[in-house]
């Protein structure tokens, strides 16, 4: 089971991803669409009331909340402490110092779900795209179609999905969600060594094992045939130029 810290990180990311498509839109924010996106991302039942609050904890209209959420420097946190009710509260983001991370992919000696051994040497010679996830992470689930489509469109890369879930949980995820990537489970030590703190995270590694870049979650544009595909294309192609 994911730790509370992981769940809080994932919750914040869920809310950010849910409104990302609206943040770049120059038209007035549509409160009903943002609320629907938040409900879908957080899997809030249609009948569950949602209260919108400002930074001070005071109630505010959905329109005012939507307008503030699309402004730079703001995010939201979800509060489920009151039974039968969801509170979405605005939060001003604090600047974060970049966390130091390894310059190269940490040493690995893992086994994927098919029984294939996966070591650094097995990935050498061409770029590798890694996806870090866990089975109950909602944005991780939403990314699966984009991940599958990207691998199909770019067979020249290595692909590896990494999770701290057990092998049984990982196999069930693949069966339920249709993830078409090789998957290594029980990889907590490797995840920690790679300085992955939130989920989902995807990372691009060069043919020489150097980490070229990483991102936390995909930006979804609902107008895309496969939401998230464009963000993945931009991330990888930008680093491989």
What does the main sheet amount to? 5 strands, mixed
String of helices and strands: HHEHEEEEHEHEHEHEEH
CATH topology assignment of the largest domain: Glutaredoxin
Structural class: alpha/beta
Mean pLDDT: 82
Number of domains: 2
Overall morphology: elongated
Number of helices: 8
Strand order of the largest sheet: 8-7-6-9-10
Low-pLDDT residue spans:
1-29
Q: In percent, how much strand structure appears in the residues?
A: 15-25%
Q: What CATH first level of the largest domain would be assigned?
A: Alpha Beta
CATH hierarchy: architecture of the largest domain:
3-Layer(aba) Sandwich
Report how far apart the termini are.
39 Å
Number of β-strand runs: 10
Helix content: 25-40%
Write down the Rg: 19 Å
CATH evolutionary superfamily of the largest domain: Glutaredoxin
Break the fold down into its secondary structure elements and pairings.
Layout: H1 4-23, H2 31-42, E1 50-53, H3 62-69, E2 74-79, E3 86-92, E4 109-111, E5 117-119, H4 120-123, E6 128-133, H5 138-153, E7 158-163, H6 167-177, E8 183-184, H7 188-193, E9 201-205, E10 211-215, H8 229-240
Parallel strand pairs: 1-3, 6-7, 7-8
Antiparallel strand pairs: 2-3, 4-5, 6-9, 9-10
Helix pairs in contact: 1-2, 2-3
